[in-house]
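TA notes, week 10

Several of you asked for a full example with nothing omitted. So below is the full record: structure tokens for the whole chain, then the designed sequence directly under it. When grading your own attempts, check the secondary structure regions first.
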């Protein structure tokens, strides 16, 4: 069984990657982020190896990567409140001078950032895109190096839900990160209790309390699918009613 972790940016995925390193030896992990040792092509080659040493894959790629791997698989991911995710992405880009979009964003207000169509990949239903994408290109580049997805097909909410029901062993949520560790452990068959890491956290992040209503409402309108998706996941997996 190959475990596939879709690392949606700014959802706690970097912390989860630390857990992956705790529970798997290095030669059984494929990190499709910025690791020069790994590429989509090398992953396919390794997964086709009869020894099948690779046990888990993590990266900024969409649902559908399994189509090229040809092994039994299961997906896992972590979601975040969509409004907070967009704010966190904005803060992150502005805090990294070497980021590809730093000079395009550093002098923009949050409202200007979400109103700029060139950033719509990030600011409009990013989570639904990654979890529902019918993959029509070989791989999805790391999002901070994104070069355009005009040939991609973004399915509707029903398709995203179908993928979650059929192919995801577990879906965590950032707001309940501590609570979701045990279900993730159970789903992946980890024997040891996972540690609680807090990686890549921005101490100077923008607070919702400081934002005007118009900006918050605009983020919400642009992320209506993600808001619906997030609510369903929280209800299904992490509410007393869902349990």
């Amino acid at each position: 069984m190959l475990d596939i972790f879709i690392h949606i940016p700014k959802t706690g995925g970097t912390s989860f990657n630390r857990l992956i390193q705790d529970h798997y030896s290095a030669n059984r992990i494929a990190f499709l982020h910025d690791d020069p040792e790994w590429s989509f092509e090398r992953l396919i080659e390794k997964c086709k190896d009869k020894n099948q040493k690779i046990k888990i894959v993590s990266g900024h790629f969409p649902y559908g990567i399994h189509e090229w791997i040809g092994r039994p698989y299961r997906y896992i991911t972590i979601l975040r409140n969509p409004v907070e995710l967009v704010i966190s992405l904005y803060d992150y880009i502005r805090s990294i001078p070497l980021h590809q979009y730093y000079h395009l964003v550093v002098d923009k207000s949050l409202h200007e950032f979400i109103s700029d169509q060139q950033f719509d990949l990030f600011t409009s239903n990013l989570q639904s895109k990654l979890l529902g994408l019918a993959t029509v290109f070989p791989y999805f580049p790391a999002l901070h190096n994104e070069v355009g997805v005009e040939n991609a097909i973004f399915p509707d909410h029903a398709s995203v839900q179908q993928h979650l029901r059929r192919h995801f062993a577990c879906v965590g949520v950032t707001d309940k990160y501590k609570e979701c560790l045990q279900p993730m452990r159970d789903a992946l068959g980890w024997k040891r209790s996972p540690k609680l890491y807090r990686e890549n956290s921005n101490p100077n992040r923008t607070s919702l309390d400081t934002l005007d209503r118009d900006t918050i409402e605009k983020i919400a309108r642009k992320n209506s699918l993600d808001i619906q998706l997030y609510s369903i996941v929280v209800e299904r997996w992490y509410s007393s009613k869902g349990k």
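The radius of gyration is 18 Å. Use that as a sanity check on your answer.
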